[in-house]
Protein backbone atom coordinates (compact mmCIF):
# COMPACT_ATOMS: atom_id res chain seq x y z
CA UNK A 1 0.00 0.00 0.00
CA UNK A 2 2.64 2.40 1.11
CA UNK A 3 4.76 1.66 -1.90
CA UNK A 4 1.83 2.34 -4.11
CA UNK A 5 1.04 5.66 -2.43
CA UNK A 6 4.67 6.75 -2.74
CA UNK A 7 4.58 5.80 -6.37
CA UNK A 8 1.39 7.79 -6.78
CA UNK A 9 2.97 10.85 -5.13
CA UNK A 10 6.02 10.55 -7.35
CA UNK A 11 3.83 10.20 -10.41
CA UNK A 12 1.74 13.21 -9.47
CA UNK A 13 4.90 15.24 -8.98
CA UNK A 14 6.32 14.11 -12.28
CA UNK A 15 3.04 14.79 -14.03
CA UNK A 16 2.89 18.31 -12.60
CA UNK A 17 6.50 18.92 -13.58
CA UNK A 18 5.99 17.67 -17.10
CA UNK A 19 2.76 19.63 -17.45
CA UNK A 20 4.64 22.72 -16.40
CA UNK A 21 7.40 21.84 -18.84
CA UNK A 22 4.90 21.27 -21.58
CA UNK A 23 3.10 24.54 -20.92
CA UNK A 24 6.28 26.57 -20.88
CA UNK A 25 7.43 24.81 -24.02
CA UNK A 26 4.15 25.69 -25.72
CA UNK A 27 4.48 29.32 -24.73
CA UNK A 28 8.10 29.34 -25.80
CA UNK A 29 7.48 27.66 -29.11
CA UNK A 30 4.51 29.89 -29.84
CA UNK A 31 6.86 32.81 -29.52
CA UNK A 32 9.82 31.50 -31.45
CA UNK A 33 8.03 29.30 -33.96
CA UNK A 34 5.74 31.93 -35.37
CA UNK A 35 8.11 34.85 -35.27
CA UNK A 36 9.01 34.60 -38.94
CA UNK A 37 5.41 34.52 -40.10
CA UNK A 38 4.50 37.45 -37.88
CA UNK A 39 7.38 39.60 -39.15
CA UNK A 40 6.41 38.99 -42.72
CA UNK A 41 2.75 39.77 -42.21
CA UNK A 42 3.44 42.98 -40.32
CA UNK A 43 5.48 44.31 -43.24
CA UNK A 44 2.47 44.17 -45.54
CA UNK A 45 0.75 47.53 -45.92
CA UNK A 46 -2.78 47.61 -44.56
CA UNK A 47 -2.39 44.52 -42.39
CA UNK A 48 -3.17 45.74 -38.92
CA UNK A 49 -3.61 42.44 -37.08
CA UNK A 50 -0.98 39.85 -37.96
CA UNK A 51 -2.42 36.44 -38.75
CA UNK A 52 -0.77 33.39 -37.26
CA UNK A 53 -0.64 30.41 -39.60
CA UNK A 54 -1.00 28.12 -36.63
CA UNK A 55 -1.12 24.66 -38.22
CA UNK A 56 -0.14 25.74 -41.71
CA UNK A 57 3.23 25.60 -43.49
CA UNK A 58 4.34 29.04 -42.31
CA UNK A 59 4.39 27.81 -38.73
CA UNK A 60 7.30 25.49 -39.53
CA UNK A 61 9.00 27.11 -42.55
CA UNK A 62 10.87 30.37 -42.96
CA UNK A 63 8.34 31.63 -45.48
CA UNK A 64 6.68 30.90 -48.82
CA UNK A 65 8.26 28.32 -51.15
CA UNK A 66 11.87 29.08 -52.19
CA UNK A 67 14.05 27.91 -55.08
CA UNK A 68 16.22 25.72 -52.87
CA UNK A 69 14.54 23.67 -50.17
CA UNK A 70 17.45 24.39 -47.82
CA UNK A 71 16.63 28.12 -47.88
CA UNK A 72 13.20 27.45 -46.44
CA UNK A 73 13.87 24.99 -43.64
CA UNK A 74 14.07 26.39 -40.13
CA UNK A 75 17.25 25.40 -38.41
CA UNK A 76 15.48 24.52 -35.15
CA UNK A 77 12.83 22.31 -36.80
CA UNK A 78 13.31 18.74 -38.02
CA UNK A 79 11.63 17.33 -41.13
CA UNK A 80 10.96 13.95 -42.70
CA UNK A 81 9.98 12.88 -46.23
CA UNK A 82 9.81 10.05 -48.78
CA UNK A 83 8.43 9.52 -52.30
CA UNK A 84 5.64 7.46 -53.90
CA UNK A 85 5.88 4.98 -56.77
CA UNK A 86 2.77 2.77 -57.01
CA UNK A 87 -1.04 2.80 -57.40
CA UNK A 88 -2.99 5.49 -55.62
CA UNK A 89 -4.06 3.58 -52.51
CA UNK A 90 -0.59 2.15 -52.07
CA UNK A 91 0.69 5.70 -52.19
CA UNK A 92 -1.91 6.78 -49.61
CA UNK A 93 -0.59 4.00 -47.34
CA UNK A 94 2.98 5.08 -48.07
CA UNK A 95 2.10 8.60 -46.93
CA UNK A 96 0.27 7.30 -43.85
CA UNK A 97 3.43 5.34 -42.99
CA UNK A 98 5.49 8.50 -43.47
CA UNK A 99 3.17 10.46 -41.17
CA UNK A 100 3.35 7.72 -38.53
CA UNK A 101 7.16 7.89 -38.75
CA UNK A 102 6.89 11.67 -38.36
CA UNK A 103 5.14 11.03 -35.04
CA UNK A 104 7.69 8.42 -33.95
CA UNK A 105 10.58 10.78 -34.70
CA UNK A 106 8.77 14.03 -33.74
CA UNK A 107 9.36 15.60 -37.12
CA UNK A 108 7.35 17.70 -39.57
CA UNK A 109 6.18 15.46 -42.45
CA UNK A 110 6.69 16.96 -45.91
CA UNK A 111 4.22 15.30 -48.30
CA UNK A 112 4.76 14.93 -52.05
CA UNK A 113 1.77 15.07 -54.41
CA UNK A 114 0.01 11.94 -55.69
CA UNK A 115 1.25 10.58 -58.99
CA UNK A 116 -1.12 9.22 -61.66
CA UNK A 117 0.38 5.74 -62.03
CA UNK A 118 -2.90 3.85 -62.64
CA UNK A 119 -5.05 6.57 -64.12
CA UNK A 120 -2.80 7.66 -66.98
CA UNK A 121 0.26 9.90 -66.96
CA UNK A 122 -1.50 12.78 -68.70
CA UNK A 123 -3.71 13.23 -65.62
CA UNK A 124 -0.73 14.90 -63.93
CA UNK A 125 -0.03 14.81 -60.22
CA UNK A 126 -2.47 16.16 -57.62
CA UNK A 127 -1.36 17.85 -54.39
CA UNK A 128 -1.88 15.85 -51.19
CA UNK A 129 -3.79 18.84 -49.77
CA UNK A 130 -6.41 18.67 -52.53
CA UNK A 131 -7.37 15.24 -51.26
CA UNK A 132 -6.65 15.32 -47.53
CA UNK A 133 -7.17 18.12 -45.03
CA UNK A 134 -3.58 18.85 -43.96
CA UNK A 135 -4.56 21.40 -41.30
CA UNK A 136 -6.89 19.01 -39.54
CA UNK A 137 -4.35 16.20 -39.90
CA UNK A 138 -1.61 18.29 -38.30
CA UNK A 139 -3.88 19.31 -35.45
CA UNK A 140 -4.95 15.72 -34.85
CA UNK A 141 -1.41 14.38 -34.61
CA UNK A 142 0.02 17.44 -32.86
CA UNK A 143 2.64 18.28 -35.51
CA UNK A 144 1.96 20.36 -38.64
CA UNK A 145 1.87 18.41 -41.90
CA UNK A 146 3.10 20.32 -44.94
CA UNK A 147 3.60 19.73 -48.66
CA UNK A 148 6.61 19.84 -50.95
CA UNK A 149 5.01 22.72 -52.85
CA UNK A 150 5.09 24.74 -49.60
CA UNK A 151 8.81 24.13 -49.19
CA UNK A 152 10.18 24.45 -52.71
CA UNK A 153 8.84 26.25 -55.78
CA UNK A 154 7.44 23.72 -58.28
CA UNK A 155 9.18 25.35 -61.28
CA UNK A 156 12.50 25.97 -59.53
CA UNK A 157 15.74 25.72 -61.53
CA UNK A 158 17.65 24.63 -58.40
CA UNK A 159 18.58 20.98 -58.08
CA UNK A 160 19.02 20.33 -54.35
CA UNK A 161 21.47 17.78 -52.98
CA UNK A 162 20.05 15.56 -50.24
CA UNK A 163 21.42 12.69 -48.18
CA UNK A 164 18.84 9.92 -47.70
CA UNK A 165 18.55 6.33 -46.48
CA UNK A 166 18.23 3.56 -49.05
CA UNK A 167 16.04 0.99 -47.28
CA UNK A 168 14.94 -0.84 -50.43
CA UNK A 169 18.20 -2.77 -50.74
CA UNK A 170 18.47 -3.62 -47.07
CA UNK A 171 15.06 -5.30 -47.13
CA UNK A 172 15.75 -7.57 -50.12
CA UNK A 173 18.89 -9.56 -50.89
CA UNK A 174 18.24 -9.40 -54.65
CA UNK A 175 18.07 -5.61 -54.91
CA UNK A 176 21.23 -3.67 -55.54
CA UNK A 177 20.01 -0.11 -55.79
CA UNK A 178 17.60 2.22 -53.99
CA UNK A 179 13.98 2.34 -55.18
CA UNK A 180 13.52 5.16 -57.66
CA UNK A 181 10.60 7.58 -57.83
CA UNK A 182 9.77 9.76 -60.78
CA UNK A 183 8.92 12.48 -58.27
CA UNK A 184 12.49 13.07 -57.10
CA UNK A 185 13.17 14.31 -60.67
CA UNK A 186 10.02 16.43 -60.71
CA UNK A 187 11.05 17.98 -57.39
CA UNK A 188 14.53 18.62 -58.81
CA UNK A 189 16.41 16.63 -56.16
CA UNK A 190 19.83 15.02 -56.50
CA UNK A 191 20.01 12.36 -53.84
CA UNK A 192 23.02 10.63 -52.37
CA UNK A 193 21.78 7.39 -50.80
CA UNK A 194 23.29 5.46 -47.92
CA UNK A 195 22.42 1.79 -47.78
CA UNK A 196 20.59 1.11 -44.52
CA UNK A 197 21.71 -1.80 -42.27
CA UNK A 198 20.09 -5.22 -42.73
CA UNK A 199 18.62 -5.24 -39.22
CA UNK A 200 15.80 -2.92 -40.36
CA UNK A 201 14.24 -5.91 -42.15
CA UNK A 202 11.01 -7.01 -40.45
CA UNK A 203 11.23 -10.75 -41.15
CA UNK A 204 14.98 -11.44 -41.33
CA UNK A 205 14.85 -14.90 -42.95
CA UNK A 206 12.16 -14.17 -45.55
CA UNK A 207 14.01 -13.17 -48.71
CA UNK A 208 10.76 -12.57 -50.58
CA UNK A 209 9.26 -10.12 -48.13
CA UNK A 210 10.13 -6.46 -48.54
CA UNK A 211 8.98 -5.08 -45.18
CA UNK A 212 11.03 -3.10 -42.73
CA UNK A 213 10.04 -2.21 -39.16
CA UNK A 214 8.69 1.20 -38.17
CA UNK A 215 10.79 1.64 -35.05
CA UNK A 216 13.93 0.39 -36.78
CA UNK A 217 13.47 3.06 -39.46
CA UNK A 218 12.72 5.68 -36.82
CA UNK A 219 15.93 4.85 -34.97
CA UNK A 220 17.97 5.72 -38.08
CA UNK A 221 16.77 9.30 -37.61
CA UNK A 222 18.59 9.69 -34.29
CA UNK A 223 22.25 10.74 -34.21
CA UNK A 224 23.82 7.85 -32.28
CA UNK A 225 22.20 5.13 -34.39
CA UNK A 226 22.80 7.02 -37.61
CA UNK A 227 26.46 7.64 -36.83
CA UNK A 228 26.99 4.00 -35.91
CA UNK A 229 25.49 2.85 -39.23
CA UNK A 230 27.23 5.21 -41.64
CA UNK A 231 28.82 3.55 -44.66
CA UNK A 232 30.16 5.12 -47.86
CA UNK A 233 27.17 6.69 -49.62
CA UNK A 234 26.35 6.31 -53.32
CA UNK A 235 27.22 9.46 -55.26
CA UNK A 236 24.21 11.50 -56.34
CA UNK A 237 23.37 11.09 -60.04
CA UNK A 238 24.01 14.65 -61.25
CA UNK A 239 26.48 16.33 -58.94
CA UNK A 240 28.23 13.21 -57.68
CA UNK A 241 27.68 14.48 -54.14
CA UNK A 242 28.55 12.11 -51.29
CA UNK A 243 26.25 12.88 -48.38
CA UNK A 244 25.40 11.03 -45.17
CA UNK A 245 21.67 10.72 -44.39
CA UNK A 246 20.53 14.13 -43.18
CA UNK A 247 19.35 14.48 -39.59
CA UNK A 248 17.79 17.84 -40.40
CA UNK A 249 15.66 16.56 -43.28
CA UNK A 250 15.35 12.80 -42.73
CA UNK A 251 14.42 10.87 -45.89
CA UNK A 252 13.95 7.29 -47.07
CA UNK A 253 13.65 6.06 -50.65
CA UNK A 254 10.32 4.19 -50.29
CA UNK A 255 7.96 3.60 -47.36
CA UNK A 256 5.15 1.36 -48.64
CA UNK A 257 6.52 -1.88 -47.18
CA UNK A 258 6.71 -0.87 -43.53
CA UNK A 259 4.98 -2.59 -40.61
CA UNK A 260 5.18 -2.92 -36.86
CA UNK A 261 4.51 -6.63 -36.31
CA UNK A 262 3.69 -8.43 -39.54
CA UNK A 263 3.69 -7.59 -43.26
CA UNK A 264 0.57 -5.94 -44.75
CA UNK A 265 -1.03 -5.20 -41.40
CA UNK A 266 -3.39 -2.32 -42.30
CA UNK A 267 -6.46 -4.57 -41.83
CA UNK A 268 -5.26 -5.73 -38.42
CA UNK A 269 -7.13 -4.08 -35.58
CA UNK A 270 -3.87 -3.01 -33.89
CA UNK A 271 -2.27 -1.44 -37.02
CA UNK A 272 -0.39 1.54 -35.57
CA UNK A 273 -0.05 3.23 -38.97
CA UNK A 274 -3.86 3.26 -39.16
CA UNK A 275 -4.52 4.18 -35.53
CA UNK A 276 -1.90 6.92 -35.19
CA UNK A 277 -1.90 8.28 -38.72
CA UNK A 278 -4.21 6.96 -41.48
CA UNK A 279 -7.40 7.50 -39.49
CA UNK A 280 -6.61 11.21 -39.21
CA UNK A 281 -6.24 11.64 -42.96
CA UNK A 282 -9.71 13.09 -43.48
CA UNK A 283 -10.97 14.24 -46.88
CA UNK A 284 -11.01 17.93 -47.67
CA UNK A 285 -14.30 19.75 -47.25
CA UNK A 286 -14.52 20.28 -50.99
CA UNK A 287 -14.11 16.59 -51.79
CA UNK A 288 -16.70 15.61 -49.17
CA UNK A 289 -19.20 18.17 -50.45
CA UNK A 290 -18.67 17.15 -54.04
CA UNK A 291 -19.12 13.48 -53.14
CA UNK A 292 -22.25 14.26 -51.17
CA UNK A 293 -23.72 15.75 -54.34
CA UNK A 294 -22.91 12.55 -56.24
CA UNK A 295 -24.40 10.34 -53.51
CA UNK A 296 -27.61 12.38 -53.42
CA UNK A 297 -27.94 12.18 -57.18
CA UNK A 298 -27.18 8.45 -57.17
CA UNK A 299 -29.86 7.81 -54.56
CA UNK A 300 -32.24 10.38 -56.06
CA UNK A 301 -32.65 12.35 -52.81
CA UNK A 302 -35.04 15.30 -52.99
CA UNK A 303 -33.77 18.78 -52.06
CA UNK A 304 -34.23 19.58 -48.41
CA UNK A 305 -33.96 15.97 -47.26
CA UNK A 306 -30.77 14.77 -45.53
CA UNK A 307 -28.44 12.34 -47.30
CA UNK A 308 -29.57 8.89 -46.12
CA UNK A 309 -27.39 6.07 -44.75
CA UNK A 310 -26.16 3.62 -47.37
CA UNK A 311 -23.96 0.56 -47.73
CA UNK A 312 -21.06 0.88 -50.20
CA UNK A 313 -19.49 -1.91 -52.22
CA UNK A 314 -16.09 -1.95 -53.85
CA UNK A 315 -15.64 -4.71 -56.40
CA UNK A 316 -12.05 -4.80 -57.63
CA UNK A 317 -11.64 -6.60 -60.97
CA UNK A 318 -9.43 -5.19 -63.77
CA UNK A 319 -5.82 -6.30 -63.45
CA UNK A 320 -6.68 -8.53 -60.44
CA UNK A 321 -7.48 -11.25 -63.00
CA UNK A 322 -3.73 -12.03 -63.15
CA UNK A 323 -4.14 -13.61 -59.69
CA UNK A 324 -6.70 -16.06 -61.11
CA UNK A 325 -3.94 -17.98 -62.90
CA UNK A 326 -5.50 -21.13 -64.42
CA UNK A 327 -8.97 -20.54 -62.91
CA UNK A 328 -11.36 -19.06 -65.54
CA UNK A 329 -12.20 -15.44 -64.67
CA UNK A 330 -15.94 -16.20 -64.38
CA UNK A 331 -15.24 -18.74 -61.63
CA UNK A 332 -12.53 -16.62 -60.04
CA UNK A 333 -14.12 -13.29 -59.16
CA UNK A 334 -16.93 -13.46 -56.59
CA UNK A 335 -20.36 -13.52 -58.33
CA UNK A 336 -22.99 -10.94 -57.43
CA UNK A 337 -25.13 -13.29 -55.25
CA UNK A 338 -22.09 -13.86 -53.04
CA UNK A 339 -21.77 -10.09 -52.60
CA UNK A 340 -25.52 -9.84 -51.98
CA UNK A 341 -25.14 -12.36 -49.15
CA UNK A 342 -22.58 -10.04 -47.50
CA UNK A 343 -24.96 -7.10 -47.96
CA UNK A 344 -27.73 -8.94 -46.08
CA UNK A 345 -25.32 -9.81 -43.27
CA UNK A 346 -24.47 -6.15 -42.90
CA UNK A 347 -28.13 -5.12 -43.01
CA UNK A 348 -28.98 -7.63 -40.28
CA UNK A 349 -26.04 -6.53 -38.12
CA UNK A 350 -26.96 -2.84 -38.49
CA UNK A 351 -30.53 -3.62 -37.51
CA UNK A 352 -29.68 -5.74 -34.48
CA UNK A 353 -26.74 -3.73 -33.18
CA UNK A 354 -27.69 -0.17 -34.08
CA UNK A 355 -31.42 -0.37 -34.81
CA UNK A 356 -30.83 0.91 -38.35
CA UNK A 357 -32.70 -0.31 -41.40
CA UNK A 358 -30.31 0.57 -44.26
CA UNK A 359 -31.72 -0.22 -47.71
CA UNK A 360 -29.59 1.90 -50.06
CA UNK A 361 -26.66 0.13 -51.70
CA UNK A 362 -24.07 1.90 -53.87
CA UNK A 363 -21.71 -0.10 -56.08
CA UNK A 364 -18.28 1.20 -57.10
CA UNK A 365 -15.95 -0.86 -59.28
CA UNK A 366 -13.25 -0.79 -61.93
CA UNK A 367 -15.27 -3.39 -63.95
CA UNK A 368 -16.18 -2.19 -67.44
CA UNK A 369 -18.38 -5.00 -68.72
CA UNK A 370 -21.86 -3.47 -69.38
CA UNK A 371 -23.57 -6.86 -68.83
CA UNK A 372 -22.13 -7.07 -65.34
CA UNK A 373 -23.34 -3.53 -64.59
CA UNK A 374 -26.81 -4.46 -65.93
CA UNK A 375 -26.91 -7.33 -63.43
CA UNK A 376 -25.89 -4.94 -60.64
CA UNK A 377 -28.81 -2.71 -61.57
CA UNK A 378 -31.23 -5.67 -61.47
CA UNK A 379 -30.37 -6.15 -57.80
CA UNK A 380 -31.60 -2.63 -57.11
CA UNK A 381 -28.10 -1.36 -56.36
CA UNK A 382 -27.19 2.12 -57.55
CA UNK A 383 -23.97 3.46 -59.00
CA UNK A 384 -22.55 6.98 -59.32
CA UNK A 385 -22.80 8.52 -62.77
CA UNK A 386 -19.26 9.43 -63.79
CA UNK A 387 -20.07 10.16 -67.44
CA UNK A 388 -19.22 13.86 -66.93
CA UNK A 389 -16.89 13.67 -63.92
CA UNK A 390 -13.59 13.82 -65.80
CA UNK A 391 -14.74 16.60 -68.05
CA UNK A 392 -16.00 18.67 -65.09
CA UNK A 393 -13.35 17.98 -62.45
CA UNK A 394 -10.44 16.15 -64.08
CA UNK A 395 -9.00 12.67 -64.44
CA UNK A 396 -8.48 12.06 -60.73
CA UNK A 397 -12.07 12.59 -59.70
CA UNK A 398 -13.88 9.35 -60.61
CA UNK A 399 -11.33 7.60 -58.38
CA UNK A 400 -11.41 10.18 -55.57
CA UNK A 401 -15.20 10.41 -55.50
CA UNK A 402 -15.52 6.62 -55.47
CA UNK A 403 -13.02 6.40 -52.59
CA UNK A 404 -14.99 8.96 -50.59
CA UNK A 405 -18.26 7.13 -51.33
CA UNK A 406 -16.70 3.85 -50.17
CA UNK A 407 -15.58 5.44 -46.92
CA UNK A 408 -18.82 7.26 -46.21
CA UNK A 409 -21.38 4.50 -45.74
CA UNK A 410 -22.85 2.84 -42.65
CA UNK A 411 -21.58 -0.42 -44.13
CA UNK A 412 -18.93 -1.55 -46.57
CA UNK A 413 -18.37 -4.69 -48.64
CA UNK A 414 -14.90 -4.88 -50.16
CA UNK A 415 -12.71 -7.16 -52.26
CA UNK A 416 -10.19 -9.21 -50.33
CA UNK A 417 -6.62 -8.29 -51.34
CA UNK A 418 -7.42 -4.78 -52.60
CA UNK A 419 -5.75 -1.98 -50.68
CA UNK A 420 -8.46 0.39 -51.93
CA UNK A 421 -11.02 -1.87 -50.21
CA UNK A 422 -8.82 -2.24 -47.16
CA UNK A 423 -8.62 1.49 -46.46
CA UNK A 424 -12.32 1.97 -47.21
CA UNK A 425 -13.07 -0.76 -44.67
CA UNK A 426 -10.97 0.93 -41.98
CA UNK A 427 -12.50 4.36 -42.70
CA UNK A 428 -16.04 3.02 -42.61
CA UNK A 429 -15.58 1.25 -39.29
CA UNK A 430 -13.48 3.97 -37.60
CA UNK A 431 -15.30 7.06 -38.83
CA UNK A 432 -18.90 5.85 -39.03
CA UNK A 433 -19.04 2.87 -36.67
CA UNK A 434 -19.94 0.91 -39.79
CA UNK A 435 -20.35 -2.83 -40.40
CA UNK A 436 -17.71 -4.17 -42.79
CA UNK A 437 -17.08 -7.41 -44.70
CA UNK A 438 -14.43 -8.49 -47.22
CA UNK A 439 -15.40 -10.91 -50.00
CA UNK A 440 -12.95 -13.73 -50.74
CA UNK A 441 -12.40 -14.85 -54.33
CA UNK A 442 -10.10 -16.92 -56.53
CA UNK A 443 -12.25 -20.07 -57.05
CA UNK A 444 -15.89 -21.16 -56.90
CA UNK A 445 -17.10 -21.00 -53.29
CA UNK A 446 -14.08 -19.00 -52.06
CA UNK A 447 -16.31 -16.81 -49.88
CA UNK A 448 -18.38 -19.66 -48.40
CA UNK A 449 -18.53 -19.37 -44.63
N1 LIG B 1 -12.88 5.10 -60.16
C1 LIG B 1 -12.55 3.90 -59.66
N2 LIG B 1 -11.30 3.43 -59.88
C2 LIG B 1 -10.97 2.23 -59.35
C3 LIG B 1 -11.90 1.47 -58.58
N3 LIG B 1 -11.29 0.34 -58.19
C4 LIG B 1 -10.04 0.39 -58.68
N4 LIG B 1 -9.83 1.52 -59.39
C5 LIG B 1 -8.57 1.93 -60.06
O1 LIG B 1 -7.58 0.93 -59.85
C6 LIG B 1 -6.56 1.40 -58.96
C7 LIG B 1 -6.23 0.30 -57.96
O2 LIG B 1 -4.94 0.51 -57.41
P1 LIG B 1 -4.77 0.80 -55.85
O3 LIG B 1 -5.45 2.08 -55.54
O4 LIG B 1 -3.32 0.74 -55.52
O5 LIG B 1 -5.55 -0.38 -55.08
P2 LIG B 1 -5.51 -1.99 -55.26
O6 LIG B 1 -4.76 -2.33 -56.52
O7 LIG B 1 -6.94 -2.39 -55.33
O8 LIG B 1 -4.82 -2.54 -54.07
C8 LIG B 1 -7.14 2.62 -58.29
O9 LIG B 1 -6.15 3.50 -57.83
C9 LIG B 1 -8.02 3.19 -59.41
O10 LIG B 1 -7.22 3.89 -60.32
C10 LIG B 1 -13.22 2.02 -58.37
O11 LIG B 1 -14.08 1.46 -57.70
N5 LIG B 1 -13.48 3.23 -58.94
C1 LIG C 1 19.37 29.59 -36.69
O1 LIG C 1 19.09 30.61 -37.60
C2 LIG C 1 19.08 31.91 -37.02
C3 LIG C 1 18.56 32.92 -38.05
O2 LIG C 1 18.87 32.54 -39.36
C4 LIG C 1 20.47 32.25 -36.50
O3 LIG C 1 20.47 33.51 -35.89
C5 LIG C 1 20.86 31.19 -35.49
O4 LIG C 1 22.18 31.39 -35.05
C6 LIG C 1 20.75 29.79 -36.07
N1 LIG C 1 20.97 28.80 -35.05
C7 LIG C 1 21.75 27.76 -35.21
C8 LIG C 1 21.84 26.83 -34.05
O5 LIG C 1 22.35 27.54 -36.24
C1 LIG D 1 -10.06 21.23 -42.57
O1 LIG D 1 -10.81 20.93 -41.42
C2 LIG D 1 -11.21 22.05 -40.65
C3 LIG D 1 -11.94 21.54 -39.45
O2 LIG D 1 -11.07 20.78 -38.66
C4 LIG D 1 -12.10 22.95 -41.49
O3 LIG D 1 -12.45 24.09 -40.75
C5 LIG D 1 -11.36 23.36 -42.75
O4 LIG D 1 -12.22 24.10 -43.58
C6 LIG D 1 -10.89 22.11 -43.50
N1 LIG D 1 -10.08 22.49 -44.64
C7 LIG D 1 -10.18 21.87 -45.82
C8 LIG D 1 -9.24 22.34 -46.88
O5 LIG D 1 -10.95 20.96 -46.04
TrEMBL record:
<dbReference type="GO" id="GO:0006004">
    <property type="term" value="P:fucose metabolic process"/>
</dbReference>
<dbReference type="GO" id="GO:0005783">
    <property type="term" value="C:endoplasmic reticulum"/>
</dbReference>
<dbReference type="InterPro" id="IPR019378">
    <property type="entry name" value="GDP-Fuc_O-FucTrfase"/>
</dbReference>
<keyword id="KW-0256">Endoplasmic reticulum</keyword>
<keyword id="KW-0808">Transferase</keyword>
<dbReference type="Pfam" id="PF10250">
    <property type="entry name" value="O-FucT"/>
</dbReference>
<dbReference type="GO" id="GO:0046922">
    <property type="term" value="F:peptide-O-fucosyltransferase activity"/>
</dbReference>
<dbReference type="InterPro" id="IPR045130">
    <property type="entry name" value="OFUT2-like"/>
</dbReference>
<comment type="similarity">
    <text>Belongs to the glycosyltransferase 68 family.</text>
</comment>
<keyword id="KW-0119">Carbohydrate metabolism</keyword>
<protein>
    <recommendedName>
        <fullName>GDP-fucose protein O-fucosyltransferase 2</fullName>
    </recommendedName>
</protein>
<comment type="pathway">
    <text>Protein modification; protein glycosylation.</text>
</comment>
<keyword id="KW-0294">Fucose metabolism</keyword>
Amino acid sequence: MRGRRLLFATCACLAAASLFGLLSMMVWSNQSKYRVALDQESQLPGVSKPKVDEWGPLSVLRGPATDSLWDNLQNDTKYITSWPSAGWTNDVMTYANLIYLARLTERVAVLPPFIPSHIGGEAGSIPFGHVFNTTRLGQSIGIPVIEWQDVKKPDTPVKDDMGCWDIWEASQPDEHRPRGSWLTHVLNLDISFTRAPNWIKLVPDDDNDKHTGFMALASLGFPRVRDAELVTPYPSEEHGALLPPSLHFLCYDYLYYVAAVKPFEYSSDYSPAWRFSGRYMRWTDRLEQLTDKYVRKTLDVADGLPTPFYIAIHVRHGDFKVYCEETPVKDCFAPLPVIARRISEIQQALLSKQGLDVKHVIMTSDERDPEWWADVKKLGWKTPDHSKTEELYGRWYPLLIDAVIQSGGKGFVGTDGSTMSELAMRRCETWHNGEVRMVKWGRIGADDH
